[in-house]
Structures are given as C-alpha cells and as structure tokens.
Amino acid sequence: METHFTLIVGAGLTGLSCAYHLGRDYLLVEKENEPGGMVRTRERHPGFLCDNTGHWLHLRSDYMKGIVRKLLPGGLVEHERKAVIHLHGAFTPYPFQANTYGLPREVVLDCLLGLLKARHPEDFGLTPPADVPGNFREWLVQCFGEGIARHFMVPYNEKLLGVSLEELRPEYAERFIPRPSLEDVIKGALGFSRESLGYNAKFVYPREGGISALPRSFARALPVPPEYNLTLQKVDPRTRIASLSDGRQVRYQHLLNTAPLPQFLGLLTDLPEEVRAAAQLLRATTVSYFDMGVRGPGDVASQYHWVYFPEPEYVFYRTGSYSAVHPGTVPPGCRSYYVEMSGGAAHLLKQPELLKQRVLTDLRKARILSDRDEILFMELCEIPFAYVIFDQNYERCRQVIFDYLASQGILTRGRWGGWGYGGMEDAMLDGKTAAEELIGASQA
Q1: Which has the least CB within 10 A, 56, 140, 256, 258?
Q2: Radius of gyration (Cα) for the chain, nearest Å?
Q3: Which residues are within 8 A (CB) of 68 and not within 5 positions of it... i.e. 6 or more apart?
C-alpha cells in the first residue's frame, strides 16, 4: 500500500493550485483525462473552441496575477467587458443599477425613486428599516430600492437559481454585486454610463488554446503530475485509507477534496448521522446550456460578450459569446455562443428538440441571431451543482460537515468542495490557502 502526506481529489484549479504550492509529497487524482475540472476547453465542432460557458479570468490579487503571468508568459489578452441587460426590448449596459438610460421613462423613474426611498427614507416620510435584512430579497431592496429589485435583481436571480430569493441568506453574492453611489445611478439614468463598475469590468483570457491553457500550464508546472482517469471509490476516515478505481489503496495523512461536496460525502464510510442529515439539506441549482456555432452576419446584439435576460418570456437567463471575446476560438466568418438555462426551462429540458427551437426563436427575437445566420451546431450540456443555494440551512449544515471532516484530517475547498460561490481566482487562492494549512499541519 502506498502512502502519501496528502491525497488531493480533483485536478481543477483548486487541486492544481494546492499541489503547486505544496511542492512536496502528494498524490493528485483526476477522473477526467486532462486537468481543469469545469475550466476546460472542448472542440465542439471543427475549429470551434468552447469553455463550458464563460470562463473569463477576473484577477484582483497581485499574487495570483503574478502566478498566472508566470504560467502563461505573454499568453494573456486583456479585455474590457461588453455586457448588457435585455429589458423591454432595449439593451442597457451592465450593471443595471447604474445604467437605466434607454428604458421606458416609468421604469427609470421607478428605479430612481425606489433607490432614493431606500437610501433617504426620511425625505419621503418613511421610517428607516430597524432590522438587518432577513433574506436576500430584503437585502436587495434595502441596497437598491423596490424599483431596481423588481425590474432586474429579483427576476434575474430567481430565474437563475429557480428559487424564491426569500429563501436565501441576505449575504448571498454580496461581494459580486456592485453598489454604485447615488451620483452614479443618476448619471446612468441620464445616459452618462459607468460600465466600468463591478469586479468583472476587465478580464484576461488566454491568447491560444481557450481557457484550458491555464490548467494545462498549472499541471506542467507541478513537481509530481496529476494521475488521470482515476476516480475515488471509497474513503475510510478512521484508517485514512482511500480506494481508487485502478484497484490501488492509498494511505494518507491529510486529504484535500475539491469534488462536489455531496458526492464526496457519499464515498465516506461510517458517516455520522448528524453529518449525513446535514448533507441531505445541501441544495444547488443545475444549469443546462447550449454550445452553438453559427455562420453569418449576426444582428445588433451579436457583438456583446454576454447578455442578461431577466424577463420570463425568454427561456434563457444569460447568453454569452466565446468568439466576441476572442475571435480565435472560431473559424473565419463564424461566431460561437453559450446559452444558459436553469429552473425556468425545466419543463423543456425533457424535450431537447423543442427546447432547441425555442432557444433559436428567442435568440432571433433578442436580435442576437439574424434570419441569415446558418446554425452549424447546437450541443446541449449540463453543469450539476452549478450554483449553491444559500438558504437558511446553509451555514449550519456546512459547518457541521466541515467540522467533522476537519476532525478526520480532511479539508474540502474550492467552489464545489467548499460548497460556496466564486470565480477562478477564488479557486486558485483556495488551493494556496489549503496548501498553507497542510504545510502548517506537517510542522505542528
């Protein structure tokens, strides 16, 4: 039986980053035949590179900027975001709360008055809310007012997640939602746009190879490369022995899990009933999406990087274009898209051909596709556990699980292992932090 200081489950960005920063005795196992997890590029059709929906690198940490540039020297292109919201037949720049110009006047007025009442209730004879918000919908109303919440924030997020926002904790996605000043909101209502607001106003993307270039470069930089086509079959936390799909048994001192938390817990033997009960309360939304390629002139919205659709008459909640960001992902004269659907499309997912026709109709209605576009392919894909549901059970159940795993020498990190929400930079930072914890444990 082989022995390793650390067994790392999953060669996504968190697992790769952990191995990179450990630089010592570890075994990194990955069920796929290449690294990346969801951060992977596939050639869906000759010449079309698709990335499991939009994977744009929003780097804020100077440290992680340095790591990525070291891994991909000269291999990154910086882009300024071109993202819009489709509402009432108009396209307004993202973020909505600072860009209502061009919408019907009554919508603009509703949004402005709602924000003023939320931030200066005494001027309207209103009593300021005495309590902290009890759920995510209340948080949105307190931050942005009833108008902005009603016209975009609530319908978009409920369409995305498939649940009422009253079920969610108030801090859900707080870090990712820009909170513009009153001055910015007024300027945005009058056409003086502030498109640079928000964490993703600028991003970088590999010059060649799609987003897979990042995890592949990580894997090449590791002192011990990942072992691919290997799945974890069983983990005995008591003996700290893991069984692998190739028949091997591995004794470990510490284990880092980056796989979806409910799946990983299902592999553990003798799970305490309290932990099992907490795991059953974990919730997440599955996202289905079409990767598609077209040839033709496009329409007025074909140049945007991504477009949000809060309105219920559109079956998708967001569309994005790989080729609008990086033309090198498609053959000349072509374009590519990802079209994302969640709870609102559940009744159509069992009828793929009907769903396909509905998506094409809605894309033409939204002026992303033109009648002259030739559809070259449409491939329906799925992302299980795409968005964790931060409901009222979330924090308690997650803590019960984490405390138990920690007591057994198991860390669980990353977007899916950590059962949270974050981007690619967050995943890499999670891996770095995990490595630091493991190194500290070895020195204790």
Answers
A1: 56
A2: 23
A3: 57, 59, 76, 204, 214
Question: Hey, which residues does 412 pair with through a beta bridge?
Answer: 257
pLDDT 10s digits, 286-327? 999 999 999 998 888 888 999 999 999 999 999 999 999 999
Q: Which amino acid is residue 25, in one-letter code?
A: D
306-308 vs 83-87, strand pairing mode: parallel
Q: Which two tokens stand for residue 199?
A: 């964490």
Rounded to whole angstroms, how far apart are CA atoms 259 and 30?
10
The string of pLDDT tens digits covering residues 135-173 is 999 999 999 999 999 999 999 999 999 999 999 998 887
> Quick check: pTM over 0.70?
yes
Give the H/E segment covering residue 164.
none
Residue type, 157: N
CA 433/CA 444 separation, integer angstroms = 17
Residues near 193 by Cβ (< 8 Å), separated by ≥ 6?
Answer: 93, 98, 99, 101, 187
In whole angstroms, give the CA distance from residue 111 to residue 438. Answer: 49
| Percent of the chain whose predicted confidence (pLDDT) is above 90 | 82
Q: Are 215 and 12 spatial neighbours (Cβ–Cβ below 8 Å)?
A: yes
Torsion of CA 72, 76, 81, 83, to 10 degrees: -70
Contact criterion met (CB below 8 Å) for 362 and 315: yes
Backbone angles phi, psi at 175, to 5 degrees: -65, -20
Q: How far apart are alpha carbons 53 and 39 in whole angstroms?
A: 9
- Which amino acid is residue 315, in one-letter code? V
Q: List, as own/partner pairs, every contact residues 357-364 make where C-beta atoms lie below 8 angstroms and the sequence separation is at least 24, other chains included.
A: 358/315, 359/290, 359/315, 359/316, 362/313, 362/314, 362/315, 362/316, 363/319, 363/337, 363/339, 364/299
CB atoms within 10 A of CB 146: 17
What 3-state class would DSSP assign to 33? coil
- pLDDT, one tens digit per residue, over 228-265 is 999 999 999 999 999 999 999 999 999 999 999 999 99
Cα 400 from Cα 407, distance rounded (Å): 11
| Residue 6 and residue 224 in contact, taking contact as beta carbons nearer than 8 Å | no
Distance CA 31, CA 10 (A): 7
Residue linked to tokens 């992302």: 383
Three-state SS for 206-248 is ECCCHHHHHHHHHHHHCCCCCECCCCEEEEECCCCEEEECCCC
Rounded CA separation 213/196 (Å): 27
